[in-house]
Amino acid sequence: MATTERVRTDPAARERGTDRATLSATEEALLDALRGRILGGRAAGALDDGADVELLADRMVAALPTVKHEADALIGPFYDTPTLAAWRGVTRQALSKATAKRDLIGLKIGDGSLVFPSFQFGVSGAPLPNLRQVLALIDPERIDPWGSALWLNTDAEEFGGTTAAQALRDGREDQVLAAARRAAQAWAADA
What is the pTM of this model? Predict the structure, then answer.
């Protein structure tokens, strides 16, 4: 996607004392998409008179994955723990427990912190259904969480040219579990 910037004066940015007055093409596209959804009635009721739009804006920004990593093109973008906790409205401890139970994929990066690939969440923040079962099949010993994330987020013909993660989102759990079993057997045979 192009990274050209269009000049757009942001009065709120001026009020906050920031000197940024431009939006990237991607930021403009995000605003246009949001505008389209609001005009299409998808925010009906949420934006009644008196709505705290600053709070809504903060929650919307919290939903954006902000961690930049060299694996963004393959697995990312990523959330860090504080951002994901804020978006999902949970504690860091809850994220840690969910990761330990394999209800979430947390990947350790160079500084020792965890990042969470955004592909594993739906629009409401709910994690992929049956993720625990899939991870138990493809990496029972918890040796390669990065490989598991890559497997889940790689387009494959067996999922109609989409990813295992998308197939889970689409309700095709049996298909993904069968593919995970086959992958695990193939990897065990190669070991």
Answer: 0.70
